[in-house]
Amino acid sequence: MTIEHTPAKPAAYPVTDATRDALAVAKRGCDELLVEEEFLQKLARSKATGVPLRIKLGLDPTAPDIHIGHTVVLNKMRQLQDLGHTVIFLIGDFTSLIGDPSGRNSTRPPLTREQIETNAKTYFEQAALVLDRSKTEIRYNSEWSMALGADGMIKLASHYTMARMLEREDFTKRFQSGIPIAIHEFLYPLMQGYDSVALKADLELGGTDQKFNLLVGRELQKQYGQEPQCILTMPLLEGLDGVEKMSKSKGNYIGISEKPADMFGKLMSISDELMWRYYELLSFRPLAEIAQMQRDVDQGRNPRDIKVLLAQEIVARFHSIGDAERALEDFNLRARGGVPDDIPEVSLGGAPLAVGQLLKQAGLAPSTSEALRNVEQGGVRIDGTVVTDKGLKIDAGTYVVQVGKRRFARVTLTPDA
Known about the structure:
By secondary structure, the chain is α/β, with parallel strands linked by helices. It has helices at residues 17-27, 36-49, 71-82, 95-98, 113-127, 142-157, 162-165, 169-176, 183-199, 211-223, 260-268, 272-282, 287-298, 303-318, 321-335, 355-361, 368-376; strands at 32-34, 54-59, 86-91, 136-140, 203-207, 230-234, 345-348, 353-354, 380-382, 385-386, 393-394, 397-403, 407-413. The longest helix has 17 residues, at 183-199.
């Protein structure tokens, strides 16, 4: 792929109220916008000329599924898309072969081509639950990265110094601690930056952990004679615990492909304080409406009512309005101690079976020890009766088994033949 070396020609365009409103949409919930005045002028130029801005988000398909923490930046893309700009959903099939070292204290193992292709298949299908599919440009960075070849890679590397690379915090810490840094890791921010050159991006989005890489793209655009992109970083969403960032490995996440009732229940479990953070980063409601909700709560309205609205909005986005309504009904039923209509049916043998084994085998607890902890905490019910005896053995029969507020199963237990 040939990159044209055309120098940027900045010009002043009138900044209108509509332009400032667009800037406010862009800044909503963001951590940082660099450089704000430059982006305001880009918005003004787009408004005056009718040419949409090119807004880029790059994601490496390191896993097949995404959770709502990943959608924070996708929500911002959708907001900018609704303003009429071109959004580019860039799948980093080439950069995944290198492995993003951001925020790590060791070399990240690169993915195989087979892993990348498998994960990429589902990535956009999930992202399209947030983005307008018909107005999204989907690209793969192997389009231009593979074509660079060895000579192109060397030329690209000549545009950035080792000293600048070592300014990156994670590289600095590893270097000072004597932890090895492989040469190929320096190629990652270079290749991500070159994506911005290839796509002629006006704005690139990413999480706060991507700031260095986004700035590399800005610098490389200058080196290639392009107008430098602005960068917008979004916060990393806290998980259900309100402390650690949302992560599958920490178990504090909400997957966007989870069942409506599970998604609803998890959203209702967050703290009242964390609820406002989720509203800011996940809700599409106007900020003025959210501010009024906060005033209502300060004046005595039950925050549970506000949390229900958030849970319904998120469930409807990834499922449907009908699913959101049914999830609310299911949640209220569980809160009253009722049993939902749609619960798993499980058949087990081995009666009489110890309660810990029953919970584990029925998929209601990840391990026997965790099952027994739930019994100790009074979180296990069989046919509505709280189980208090960790040594209880269950005879043959059919039972409704409940762990906590959200996990149910109808278990049919039979003796071994």
